[in-house]
Design a protein that fits this description.
0% strand, 3 helices, membrane, 76 residues, transmembrane
Length: 76
């Protein structure tokens, strides 16, 4: 269920990028360049987070804690 939601959010973000991409080169003022720069950073953060969910990337600490818990439960 979570992976389905992550995939849908990733597709939605890609759709928004598809819609916005033609407008980015038209940015001429400093404010518009700042807006599009921040928009692209936000897109990359959203896409990266959802890709991490899809690929089930976990921080190393969490993986090590799970392994320690598993060793403790197996030894008892």
């Amino acid at each position: 269920m979570i992976r389905n939601h992550a995939l849908l959010r990733l597709l939605l973000a890609a759709f928004f990028l598809y819609i916005a991409w033609p407008k980015i080169p038209e940015a001429t003022s400093g404010a518009s360049l700042l807006f599009w720069g921040l928009w692209l950073v936000f897109f990359l953060l959203c896409a990266g987070a959802n890709l991490a969910i899809l690929l089930q990337l976990q921080p190393k600490l969490e993986v090590e804690q799970k392994e320690q818990r598993k060793r403790l439960t197996d030894s008892h």
